[in-house]
Amino acid sequence: MFTGIITALGTIRAIEPIGGGKDMRLVIATPWPDTASIALGASIACSGCCLTAVEVNADSFAADASAETLACTTLGSWTTGSLVNLERSLKIGDELGGHMVSGHADGVGEAVSATAENGSTRWVFRAPAELARFIAVKGSVAVNGVSLTVNEVKGDMFGVNVIPHTALVTLFGTMKPGDSVNIEIDMLARYVARLAETT
Questions:
Q1: What is the reported pLDDT for 171?
Q2: What pTM did the predictor assign?
Q3: Nearest 5 degrees, angle CA 81-CA 42-CA 95?
Q4: If residue 89 lies in a helix (H) or strand (E), which one and from where to where?
Q5: What kind and span of H or E run contains 132?
Q6: What is the per-residue pLDDT for 98?
Q7: Of 127, 105, 96, which Cα lies nearest the Cα of 4?
Q8: 140 CB-near residues (< 8 Å, 6+ apart)
Q9: What is the Cα–Cα distance from 9 to 29, expressed in whole angstroms?
Q10: How far apart, in Å, are the Cα atoms of 69 and each of 107, 138, 150, 161, 196?
């Protein structure tokens, strides 16, 4: 489990095809001073996708991504040098600053626009049609692993405000309209919708 509070920007150092070329191993360099303390098998959210550390070095870790993950997220488009939002898994007793995020991206959306709005930036995203019904005003959503509050919803599009600090420490600082993003809907919304279907 994660909170959607990004703690570092990593960089894809290497991509190695595995599993007959259908899967891949990602080597991700991190600025964390304690990267070497990551346990093998630890879960790390990489731009909103929970991956397992299969190798750890002083300034990087490696994780394997299956063909399914590559097909359902933006990971398949990553190249050497790509930046990645990173968050280590939540520990009991940690501050829960965002919302409960599983790291299981529900789909790929698109950044539609970015407009300056007072001291922040209003980003508008288009969600896959099957996910749009789970996104509600004042609800939570994770975009590339970043916990955000939904400020507007119009059909399959939703808007969020991103403050300068968030833009500085996440991929929002380099994101452009037209970019693809990993979207994870609020797990509470998922279960409420499921309950409504069965009553």
A1: 97
A2: 0.93
A3: 95
A4: none
A5: helix 129-132
A6: 83
A7: 96
A8: 4, 98, 99, 147, 148, 149, 150, 186
A9: 9
A10: 10, 29, 26, 28, 29
The whole-number mean pLDDT for each consecutive block of 10 residues of the chain, a chain of 199 residues, reads: 95 95 96 93 97 96 96 96 96 82 94 96 97 94 97 97 97 97 89 72
Structure tokens at 48: 């909103």
CA distance 105 to 85: 14
Tally of CA atoms within 13 A in the half-sphere of 74 that contains its CB? 24
- Is residue 18 within 8 A of residue 24, CB to CB? The reply is yes
What residue has token string 């790390």?
Answer: 44
> How far apart, in whole angstroms, are the C-alpha atoms of residue 177 and residue 193?
30
Q: Would you state the pLDDT for residue 199?
A: 63
Please, are residues 24 and 16 in contact by the beta-carbon 8 Å criterion?
yes
Give the 3-state secondary structure of residue 68. helix
Q: Give the CA angle between residues 146, 147, 151 to the nearest 5°.
A: 115
What whole-number distance in Å separates Cα of residue 162 and Cα of residue 165?
8
DSSP 135-192: --TT-EEEETTEEEEEEEEETTEEEEEE-HHHHHHSGGGT--TT-EEEEEE-HHHHHH
Residues with Cβ within 8 Å of 196's Cβ and at least 6 positions away in sequence, in order, are: none
